[in-house]
Amino acid sequence: MSASISINDIFKQSEGNIVSNMGQEKVMLNVEKGKYYNLGELGGLIWEYIESPMSVKDLCENLMKEYNVEKEICEEQTLIFLNHLYTEGLIEKQQLIELP
């Protein structure tokens, strides 16, 4: 599984994870691996956004509307977070389907 992701990639949640709210944060159990993850508050919001396939670019635009953060910082931090989820197999990269 390649760990190289870009702003134009599209991601969605992988199957087989149980997510629960703990206060303001989200925690997740990956059933297959038997591992727990604390997504935190912001990570939980990202997780909700990618319930349906979403590009990293659109995800960052949504986050910038919700939080007062500079574009470069938002993109950098979001890519780091998504890269971690991707290497753990918690999210899936989607293929862009072009219509004829």
Task: Please tell me about this protein's structure.
This protein is an alpha+beta fold and 100 residues long. The protein is 38% helix and 27% strand. The chain has helices at 40-49, 56-66, 71-87; strands at residues 10-13, 17-22, 25-30, 35-39, 54-55, 91-94. The strands form 2 sheets. It has a 3-stranded antiparallel beta sheet with strand order 5-1-6. Helix 2 packs across helix 3 (71-87). The protein is globular. It starts with 9 loop residues before the first strand and ends in a 6-residue tail after the last strand.
Briefly note the structural class of the backbone. alpha+beta
Proportion of helical residues: 25-40%
Largest sheet entry? 3 strands, antiparallel
Ends apart, CA distance between termini = 29 Å
Looking across the biggest beta sheet, what order are the strands in?
Answer: 5-1-6
User: Are there runs of 5+ residues with pLDDT below 50, and where?
Assistant: none
Envelope shape: globular
Can you count the helices? Answer: 3
Whole-number average pLDDT?
A: 90
Radius of gyration: 14 Å
Number of strands: 6
**What is the N-to-C order of secondary-structure elements (H for helix, E for strand)?**
EEEEHEHHE
Strand content: 25-35%
